[in-house]
Amino acid sequence: MATVAGGSRRVRPIEWVMRAVVSAHAVLIFGQPVFAGVYLSGDFDGLRWHAAGANVVTSVGYVQVVVGIVAWVRLRRAWPFLATLALVVAETVQYFAGLGGALWLHIPLGVMTIVALVVMFIAVWWAPVRREGTDA
């Protein structure tokens, strides 16, 4: 049984699913600047890895939206969905900016999405999503 600071509380399955998806999303997104750096150092295969990574990261983001909706319905908490929606919108804009070669937008959005995802990772592990109206 997982505990929360100040007492024990059972962590619901949807909370574990949210944690797992956010964690996977965070791990995957950290590969993107690495692949971009490989490309910028002269290895042109890095661009192919960066593009494939973008497809995977974006897909996991969309899965996270679905998990956020389920968390909203099951736990009556909107923040996981709303935070994920904002993140995925930024990722989608960044994805198309990268395809279009708009690096002036692609790079800053990449930094912002990584920071936002790290904050969300901390939020779901530090203070799990609680059902509205419960103590702890």
Automatic annotation (TrEMBL):
Q: Which keywords does the record carry? A: Membrane, Transmembrane, Transmembrane helix
Membrane: present as a keyword of the record? Answer: yes
Name the UniProt record assigns to this protein: Uncharacterized protein
Give the originating organism: Actinomadura litoris
Domain of life here?
Answer: Bacteria
Question: From which lineage does this chain's organism come?
Answer: Bacteria, Bacillati, Actinomycetota, Actinomycetes, Streptosporangiales
Q: Which residues cross the membrane?
A: 52-72, 79-97, 103-127
